[in-house]
Structure formats: structure tokens, C-alpha cells
Amino acid sequence: MPEVQEILSLAKTLSKEEISLIKKAYAFAEKVHEGQKRYSGEPFFNHIHETAKNLAKYGQSGATIAAGILHDSIEDTVITASEIKEKFGDEILFLIQGVTKLGALKYKGVKRHSESLRKLFVAMSEDIRVLVIKLTDRLHNMQTLQFMPKDKQERIALETMEIYTPLAYRLGMSKLGRELEDLAFKYLDPESYEKILAILEKRVKKEKGELEKISKTIKKALAKEKIRVIKTEYRVKGLKSIDRKIKQKKEEESVHDILALRIIVPTIDDCYKTLGIVHRLWRPMPGRIKDFIAFPKTNGYQSLHTTVFSGGENLFEIQIRTEKMDYEATYGVAAHAVYKGEKKMSWIGNFFGDSYKPSDEEGPPAWVKGLSDYQKGYTNASDFVKDLKRDFFGERIFALTPNGDAIDLPVGSSPIDFAYAIHSDIGDHLSGAKINGKLSSIETELKNGDIVKIITAKKAEPTRKWLSLAKTSTARRDIKRYLGIGKKK
């Protein structure tokens, strides 16, 4: 099977048993899908092959890749669940059934949308591999969307933009998220897509030569300081991301990070030393120095960013990070368990197969665990979708406790949201707050990096006014609970 070798060659580390399982699944799927065609006229099995390739690229276990190969077997062939269980076992069957359930969910209005999200999140929290298989399946479907009928193109692209792209980004899988987002953008706003594509081509042609000169200068300067450069590369911003920034800033030329230089160095110390050298060579733009190493993004992204005046007519963004940070920035949650030499995160054990044996079970991140319970208490589908998009998919900030613990909140949150995010009892007895050491109103909008100390009092309690001030649904639900709003009489 020469075709399966392409998949195996992309995988990071597989045991003999995993390789055998993948080959067995590949031969089985190739046989059961024989003669089936896609809208494009190509063999249906091409989709199976591409999905498995994507899973291998993301370092998935043999079981996950095998489930990806078999993910359409029950839905699109005469094969039954009992046959899959007999040939491949309970684990593979569970993953296939999870993907099949997600595949049956279509974006058709708010109510159906909310039901889709509920089921999606339940599947996610049960086993995150189900979601990763579905994301890679969706990626290939988007890459071949031109062969679908027009009405389906729009629905699938909208669903991709609204649901799958934010989830990929939230898992830190930026490469996958960017691909999904740009493919959806092409169908949802083709006129803007072509316009941004032309801008991108013009800017790359105009700026790449100058960026190459900057790269050579930096390498020489770092060599003098005995800082090893693992590699330098150019990062081209996603098309939808460029479109969003241009609309926000109102003019193309104000977007300085369409093309960026990325410098990969061995250690965190080297990152900060390199930043100092860059600023010695070129004057940095005020307000454009971002330290995502000390304060990582909510999805775990770490890097140093600075925008410098090149001496010519252009401004350039330079990103500095370690090899590990670079890998994690591309592959998100996947990177933690496949990056060489690192202690693996125990919650992700099942994600990567039997080779990983956690010694202490930490459980999935809080935001992942919370998703399956998020819909509880909602009777109105429209409210559920609106709150969910704001709380989980909107822009986020980090506000810090005095001990340095980061509280992840949506933009626009106040000390009320902060207090309830810590614990409902703290929220219920909130009487005041200190922000960065100063007494502040509990209505104050928090900013990224604010240090917040919550002041409580036994007699303090929520008021109805807090409902209009709270940004998170968690805070509003707890306030309603305390005030007895919505209780059955």
C-alpha cells in the first residue's frame, strides 16, 4: 500500500502496533468505499486519505488516525457499528460514532445551531480527539468546496467561520484555524477576498526584499553575541485577518504586520537578548512591543512581538520565540504531547495513544470542561448562542489576582465578572475592588494585565443593576440565582 506510506511518513512517532492498525484501517476503508464518488467526480476515498494525512501532520496517535480513516464507514457504507467494534474495538468505534454525530449537525438557523453546539461540546469534553478528527475532516471539505452546489457552499462556509474556526484557534491550532478561516472567507465574501489577495501580493512583492536584508543583519548581530539562530522565516498574515484589521483601521497602510519576520532561538533568555539587539539596531514603534512569553494568550500562545522602523519607508513586525513555542503556536494542544523532551500534559493522554502514561490526572483545561455544562439553564436557544459566542469565541483578556493567577474573561468584563469567575460566594459578597492597587468602582472595565483584588463583606449582596453590568453568563446566572429570579413559584 504505497498510499498509506505517505500518511505514515507524516506521523511523528508510531509503534509497530499503531502502524499495523493504520494499515488495517486503510485497507478496510479502501474496500468499503470502493466505487463511491464525491461531487467533484473524484473517488470518495481521496477525502479519507487527505483527512488521515492531516491527522498525521498534527501528530495524532495510531488510534486517532485509524478512526479518521474509518470516520465515514458507518454513515456512508453498509458497514455496521457492530462490525467496526468486532474488527477495531470499542475505542475506535467510540471515536467514529462521535464524528458521525457531529457530521449529522447542520447550520440551519439559531435553534439548530445551538443544538449543534451543545452536542459538539459534549463530544469535545468526552474525548477531544473527536473534535480534532472533525476539524481535519472539515479542512479537506473546505479545500474541495468549489464542487458543492452554491447553497451548500454558503451554509458550510458560514458554519466553518462561526463554529470550527474559533474552536481551532481556541485550541491553539493556529495553522488549521487560519486555513479554515481563509477558505470560508473566500465563499462568504468573494469580493473582499479577491481585494485582500491583491493587497497581500502587492505588499509581499514590495516588502520581502527589505525583510530579507533585516534578517541577514539580525543573524550577523546575533552571531557576534554568540546567540544561535535555529531558523528565520517569514510569516504571512491570513487573508481574513488582514481584512479585519484594514476594516478596523480604515486604511491598508496602517496594517504593519501583513508580512512578519520570525526568529527562532534556543532559550527564553535568548528571546529577550534578541529583542534587545533588535531594538539596538532599529527604533521600535511605541505601543507595539508585546510580551506573550510573560503573559501568554488564552490558548497558550507565547512569543515576543515588536514593530520596528526599518530605516526605509516600511514598518516591520518581528516575532521572537523558542523552537518549542513555535511548534506550539502551530499545533496548539497537539504540541504538548509530541514535542521532544517535554513533560507531557496528562489531560491530553488519550489524545496521543498508549505511548503516554500519565502519572497524575489533571483533567482537561477548565474552559474545555466547562463547555459541556455551559448550556445548562438555558431555555432560549438565541440567548445560548449569543452568550456562548461572547464568552468563548469573542476577544479575551487576562486579569490577574494579587497572587498572579490569570483569570480569563471576555473583553468588557468588570470586577463583578472577575469575582464570580473566582467563586460564586466571592461574587455574592462583592463590596468593592482594587485595580492595580487603587480603589475602583465595581463597574470599571478591566484591561489586559490588570491586577484585581476583590473586597468582600458579609452583608454585601448583588443587586438587579449588576445584571446589566455583568458580561459573562456565569456571573448573570449566579446573580439571578441569588436574587431568586426565574425560580418556579
UniProtKB/TrEMBL annotation:
Where in this chain does the entry annotate a coiled-coil region?
197-224
| SUPFAM superfamilies referenced in this protein's UniProt entry, alphabetically | HD-domain/PDEase-like, Nucleotidyltransferase, TGS-like
Domain TGS positions: 393-456
Record keyword Coiled coil present: yes
Naming one, the record's GO cellular component terms include: plasma membrane
- Tell whether Cell cycle is among the UniProt keywords: no
Q: Which GO terms fall under biological process for this protein? A: guanosine tetraphosphate metabolic process
Q: Which UniProt keywords apply?
A: Coiled coil
PROSITE patterns, per database record: TGS
- Kindly give the InterPro entries that the UniProt entry links to this protein: Beta-grasp_dom_sf, NT_sf, RelA/Spo_fam, RelA_SpoT, TGS, TGS-like, TGS_RelA/SpoT
Main function: In eubacteria ppGpp (guanosine 3'-diphosphate 5'-diphosphate) is a mediator of the stringent response that coordinates a variety of cellular activities in response to changes in nutritional abundance.
Family, per entry: Belongs to the relA/spoT family.
The record's annotation in NCBIfam families points to: spoT_relA (TIGR00691)
Q: Which PANTHER family match?
A: GTP PYROPHOSPHOKINASE, GUANOSINE-3',5'-BIS DIPHOSPHATE 3'-PYROPHOSPHOHYDROLASE
Give the protein name, as stated in the record: TGS domain-containing protein
